[in-house]
Amino acid sequence: MSQVLAVALGVFVAVALSVAACSIRPAWRRHIVVAAPVTLGLASLVGAWLLLSDVALLAGAGGTSLAVAWTLGGAAANPWVTAGVLVACGLAARAAFRAESLILRWVSRMKKPRSGALPAELLALNLPERAETMSEVGRTAARPGRYWSVSLLAVAGEESLFRVAMPVVLVLLGFPVWVAIVVPAALYAVNHIGFGLASVLGKLLFGVVLGCGAWAAGALFVSAPIHLLYQSWVRRQFVSRKPGRPARIKETVE
User: Fold this and answer.
1) pLDDT, tens digit, for every residue of 29-39?
2) What percent of the chain lies above the pLDDT cut of 90?
3) Which of 152, 170, 157 is nearest to 225 (CA)?
4) Which DSSP string corresponds to 180-249?
5) Is residue 184 part of a domain?
6) Per the domain annotation, does 254 fall within a domain?
């Protein structure tokens, strides 16, 4: 478990440093919505490589075969099962997407945050408020080339680390499968703390869905495609907004 937590901390710190660097000057803050996910993707790929290297050295062929199973699942043996899992996880992911939106709406009604601000504990860091971040996400979403380049890198890194490398290490350490799914989902969710605790809860639900998909039929065939589909939902809610309409607190982000 210590290896997993150490890598997760390293990824979190890398993302936090990228955000802090972009917050040094107000003019740089608009780059956070690109810098943070790019850093997250790259740091996650490095973390996955470190964990899987340890798996290959310490567990040998058994660890390698387990990593292959979490990556490819049973697609080659039973494509119909994989298709069924893909559909089921897609529906569950949509429910998680909707749940996060509802949670954000409820929090905005109960708490009435200032101008869609970040949590109070983060405001002292000179980070942009949520409304400002949402506006920049919308600008990025309006440029499909940039949006999908960033999304592909982030998804590749997150799926490699949180849906393959971490679960494999936890299973090899003797933890039950549900722990190998929930713990990486929680660590994945924490990286979204900049959007508030409600977003962290929503990402926890989404992470569990993706973890179940990777376990049942492989990250490559289920969780990665579902994650990209989720990104398309995120983009659509911004590009479908009427011109001049401000971002809403309840809008879901990656």
Assistant:
1) 778 888 889 99
2) 41
3) 152
4) HHHHHHHHHHHTTGGG-HHHHHHHHHHHHHHHHHHHHH-IIIIIHHHHHHHHHHHHHHHHTSPTTPPPPT
5) yes
6) no
Q: What is the total count of domains within the chain? A: 1
User: How much is the pTM?
Assistant: 0.82
pLDDT of residue 246 exceeding 60: no
Q: For residue range 165-180, what is the model confidence (pLDDT) as tens digits?
A: 999 999 998 999 999 9
Q: Looking at the domain assignment, is residue 251 inside a domain? A: no
H-type helices in 32-162, by residue range? 32-72, 79-111, 120-123, 130-141, 144-160
Q: Do the Cβ atoms of 86 and 163 come closer than 8 Å?
A: no
Q: Which two tokens stand for residue 164?
A: 């393959």
Please, is 202 exposed, middle or buried when counting C-beta atoms within 10 Å of its C-beta (0-12, 13-18, 19+)?
A: buried
Q: What is the distance between the alpha carbons of residues 52 and 48, in angstroms, rounded to a whole number?
A: 6
- Residue 28's domain comprises 2-239
Q: How far is CA 114 from CA 65, 117, 132, 228, in A?
A: 51, 5, 12, 32
Is 45 part of any domain? yes
Handedness of CA 32, 10, 70, 93 (dihedral sign): negative
Q: How far apart are CA 170 and CA 183, in angstroms?
A: 9
Report the pLDDT averaged over residues 51-80: 78
